[in-house]
Specification:
This is DUF4112 domain-containing protein. This protein has about 180 residues and is mainly α. It is about 65% helix and about 0% strand. It has one domain. A hairpin with a 6-residue loop joins strand 1 and strand 2.
């Protein structure tokens, strides 16, 4: 297995204005990939910071909402992994995508700092870039890859639901203390 390299994210280059997902010209762009590129762009890069070349998306904004925001963005992130598994990603790539979501979700637990980290981490863009790399140089998938993908996806869903439940419980406990 090759050492882990952070994939290049084509829609957040500081040297020029990022491309929108539909502006990319790729011969291997399927409707599913276009949908994932659009979703990634919306979650990670849709909003420009005026006067800078930096962009962020709805992911850190929705993450501010206790429980529900992290649940929604986490499930959308898992959806990218599900689609990647459907497109035949190998187990190593599914594992990398899961790791990106794990980092994003766990750091999201830290109030304010987690949301600031979310602005820079861009797990969805990283995962779509991994998917694009695979589609550019596909490796044949094996039955073990599909089984591993299933386990990773179920674990990610359990993680996201657990964190959302924990967030709601913490907020309810804090509100109970204020009464």
């Amino acid at each position: 297995m090759a050492p882990f390299k952070r994939p290049k994210i084509s829609n957040s280059s500081p040297s020029r204005r990022p491309e929108k997902p539909l502006e990319r010209s790729r011969s291997n762009t399927t409707p599913a990939l276009k949908r994932l590129q659009q979703m990634s762009y919306l979650l990670d890069s849709a909003i420009a910071i005026p006067g800078t070349s930096y962009r962020f998306g709805l992911d850190p904004i929705l993450g501010v909402l206790p429980g529900g925001g992290d649940l929604l963005t986490g499930l959308l992130s898992v959806y990218i992994v599900v689609e990647g598994a459907r497109m035949g990603l190998p187990a190593a790539t599914i594992g990398r995508m899961g790791f990106n979501i794990l980092i994003d979700t766990l750091t999201g637990l830290i109030p304010v700092l987690g949301d600031l980290f979310d602005v820079t981490w861009k797990a969805n863009s990283l995962n779509v870039a991994l998917l694009e790399q695979h589609l550019a140089n596909p490796e044949p998938s094996r039955a073990a890859d599909k089984a591993f993908a299933f386990v990773v996806i179920m674990a990610l869903i359990a993680l996201v639901l657990s964190i959302a439940t924990l967030s709601v419980w913490v907020v309810s406990q804090l509100l109970g203390l204020l009464r």
